[in-house]
Structure formats: C-alpha cells, structure tokens
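pasting for the record
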Amino acid sequence: MTITLPAFGKAFEECLEEGCVTPSSFPGFAKYNPSGIKGWCELPKFLGGFMELIFNTSDGSLRPNASIDAIRSIRQLTLMFGKILLECSDARKAAATNDYLACEQDLDRLLNRITEDDMSRFTRVSELVFGQLFSDVDLLVWEREAVRPHMVQVLQSIDCVETQSSTNVSGPLVCKSSSLGRNF
C-alpha cells in the first residue's frame, strides 16, 4: 500500500496536470471502458466512480465541472500512504540494489565505449551551442551576481549578498544583475 497507492496518486496528479487520462496512465491498474465503445477512454477500475466525476468517460478529458470533492478524496486516499515509513522487504531491497548495480555497470560499459574523438566532437558541439551561456553564467557567479536561492541566506550571513536582493528569489538561480535578462 505504501508503494502502489502513492504511485496511483502520482499518476492521478499527472492526469490532472495534463488535463486528460491517456492509455498509458495508471500502469499496473486494471482499466474499464465506461462508454462501452471500443477505442474510447479507459479509466482505472480502482476508484472508477470518483474518476468518472473528474474525467469525461468518452475521451478521458478533464471535465469542466470536475468534482473538487472527488479530487480531494482520491488525493487523500492515495497520497497519505506515501508518508508512512515502513521497512521494505528484503526481496525489494535486494532488487533495488541489483537494479542500481546493473545501471552502474551499463554506464561503465557506455563510458568505456566513448572514444577520444567522440569526446572531442561532443566538447566542440557543446561549446558552439552553450559556450556563451556558460561564459555569461560563470562570470555572474565569479562576480557573485548570481546565487542559488537557498544560498542567499548563507551569503547574507557572511555579507556577500545585499538584503534587498533576497526578495528576487524567482527561479532556481537568482541574478542580482540583469545583464542576462533571465533566471536559470
């Protein structure tokens, strides 16, 4: 329950964000076709009654009058179990470890296949595409004109950033200077 229900909840939130249920939504959950017309929307059987109050049964699109109570109920029923800290079974831990090691081995094999010529071409294309951007950001960081939002408080404590600039925390990288005209 601590894995399956939160996975359903995450898929549900993705459907809300996208505005529709797609055939690939809710993997691992049985589906049904409420309209009975072949090729039309398939909603998950689990919590299907709630789902019909939120998504059109004909095409899977979000209803303009979707039930807020149904949305809240599904979110509460599915996402609350993600907060419970329970020990995973030894089999699940072993599978996760094996998957991690397999991924690392795949990366090692891939990196060993990269030739010096491949790396040279990659570096050249990267410099052509991103060179000026990297140079501009590097200069901003060097001049302490760009800081990450979570660092504003730290830098303020050692007087590196003016207090007023901390209100300019609008993106993942805060630029005191507008020389780039954008956040990163």
